[in-house]
Design a protein that fits this description.
The structure is a single chain. The chain has helices at about 45-50, 275-280, and strands at about 5, 10, 60-70, 85, 90-95, 105-110, 115-120, 125, 135, 140-145, 155-165, 170-180, 190-195, 200-205, 215-220, 230, 240-245, 250-255, 260, 265-275, 285-295, 305, 320-325, 335-340, 350-359. With about 350 residues, it is mainly beta. Strands 3, 5, 7, 9, 10 and 13 form a six-stranded antiparallel beta sheet that branches. Strands 14, 16, 17, 20, 23 and 25 form a six-stranded antiparallel beta sheet that branches. Strands 15, 18, 19, 21, 22 and 24 form a six-stranded antiparallel beta sheet that branches. The chain is globular and about 75 Å long.
Length: about 350
């Protein structure tokens, strides 16, 4: 076969090229393809002709969703992270790469045959490349309106078509409930996550570039300095969240609360940095607290989990913290709160938050 080489030499040449040659030696002079070269059964020979198994791209599948109804952008609603009758929703759909290779230029198209759903803008959205075993979120949201006459408890079924430039296509589906009964509902479903053989997860790297991120809640107490998006020194990606100190020396009590989840056990991990001088070792003018929140913040049943300041390895250096909240999880809806508290303190930053839990 003239298309196969060994040691840089072809195994033959096209038939009719030459008839005067040394059998078994295609180079002296080049022989026709029906002449052959003898290969010894050695490890080197076998290795030269053995095909290496390649990695697989995908499938890329549905992982979770986040409902944004905070009355900003294209959304109109009460900001509870739940689909309600008459709301306009900004929908973020997280996809999970189940393969062993990065899925490139991912795109998802969403559809629904539900008569109570009206799509407001484009139904196909791009994603950044998704690494193997990781999730990714659409860079621009899917927007839809819910009919005011939707029955309470109605479930919307969504279909997904997923493509990449190096694999697919794949299809998947998910559902979201519609609640229309007002404040009597004790259900919080801003994020529904598949397990993929392990714990459910809520991951936040602030790559939406907005504060609060979709599904999260920001409670500001200081008029000057509170949680903001930063770009100067992210732990990963392009963005992170931080709080700067207030030069006016007013008290700061700045909250960032995660989407709601129902867990029987779990933990929260994150990366953070801050000033050892102003926040811990010399002065104690600022802290970053982690809380396990049941119901509304400040209801008397919130559980203080600890400080991340204690994990900082040096001044302004990204450091990892992990806190287990299993002892406080009962299967009821809860959230994780990050609270910056201080006066005359310094910047504290967070990135790559991961909440892992078992329902």
């Amino acid at each position: 076969n003239p298309g196969v080489t060994y040691g840089g030499d072809t195994m033959g040449v096209p038939e009719g090229t030459s008839t005067a040659c040394t059998a078994g030696n295609p180079s002296n002079p080049p022989c026709d393809s029906d002449n052959r070269k003898t290969l010894n059964n050695t490890a080197y020979t076998v290795a030269n002709f053995r095909s290496s198994p390649g990695g697989s791209v995908g499938p890329v599948a549905y992982d979770s969703y986040v409902i944004d109804d905070n009355n900003r952008g294209h959304s109109t609603g009460n900001g509870d992270g739940i689909v309600n009758c008459g709301e306009s929703i900004e929908l973020y759909v997280n996809l999970y790469n189940q393969g062993s290779e990065t899925a490139t230029e991912v795109e998802a198209c969403i559809s629904s045959t539900d008569s109570y759903v009206t799509w407001l803008h484009k139904t196909c959205r791009a994603y950044r490349d998704i690494s193997a075993g990781r999730t990714g979120t659409n860079t621009k949201d899917f927007d839809f309106a819910v009919d005011p006459g939707t029955p309470d408890g109605h479930v919307i079924h969504f279909d997904l078509g997923i493509t990449t430039t190096n694999g697919g296509p794949w299809s998947d589906a998910f559902s979201a409930p519609v609640l229309c009964g007002g404040e009597d509902h004790e259900v919080f479903l801003p994020l529904v996550t598949k397990n993929h053989g392990g714990p459910a997860t809520i991951a936040e790297g602030f790559e939406s570039g907005v504060m609060p991120p979709p599904g999260w809640t920001h409670i500001q107490s200081n008029a000057n300095e509170t949680w903001r998006i930063g770009t100067y020194d992210p732990h990963s990606g392009s963005y992170y969240a931080h709080v700067l100190y207030d030069p006016a020396l007013l008290d700061q009590n700045e909250l960032l609360l995660s989407p709601s989840f129902a867990a029987s056990s779990g933990s929260v991990s994150l990366w953070s940095y801050g000033s050892l001088y102003w926040c811990r070792d010399t002065y104690d003018n600022c802290d970053l607290e982690v809380w396990f929140v049941k119901g509304a913040w400040g209801g008397g049943d919130d559980v203080y989990l600890g400080l991340v300041d204690e994990d900082w390895i040096e001044q302004w250096a990204w450091s990892h913290s992990s806190i287990d909240f299993s002892a406080h999880a009962s299967g009821d809806p809860a959230r994780i709160a990050l609270r910056y508290t201080g006066n005359d303190g310094a910047e504290i930053a967070v990135d790559d938050i991961l909440i892992e839990y078992l329902p």
